[in-house]
Amino acid sequence: MRTLALDVGTKTIGIAVSDELGITANGITTIQRKGLKYDLSELRTLIDEYKPGEIVVGVPYQMDGSVSERGNQILKFSKKVGEVFSLPIIHWDESFSTVNAEKKLIQADLSRKKRKKVIDKMAAVFILQEYLESKRY
Prior knowledge:
By secondary structure, the protein is α/β, with parallel strands linked by helices. The protein has one domain (3-136): Nucleotidyltransferase, domain 5. It contains four helices and five strands. It has helices at 36-50, 69-85, 97-107, 112-136, and strands at residues 3-8, 12-18, 25-32, 54-59, 89-93. The chain has a five-stranded mixed beta sheet, with helices on both faces. Strand 4 (54-59), helix 2 and strand 5 (89-93) form a beta-alpha-beta unit. The longest helix is centred in the last third of the chain and has 25 residues, at 112-136.
């Protein structure tokens, strides 16, 4: 069963998907957000193509474990995604996913311009890979 992961930002949504065995995460695209209807339409296309059994959504938690204001917006969005697509939604702590993705892209010697294009997709990969690894143990 495939798992789809979302790194939901205010301007973009990074998307990653697992392989059928749930071992590896692969970045597939970044959706430029234009409103709920558009966002859900773009997600529908990806869900129809990859047919995931669940969706992991990165949620930023604060150091005390509470959800930030931005996190609450993401929870609201993820609830809508779950309702529209009738798929289980798993919330995953994404606190350092973007930072880790940025470090990895810098190590790969990508220019700032190129990093900006793929950072959200890479963050979704980090979220998904952590989730997949947690399921193995």
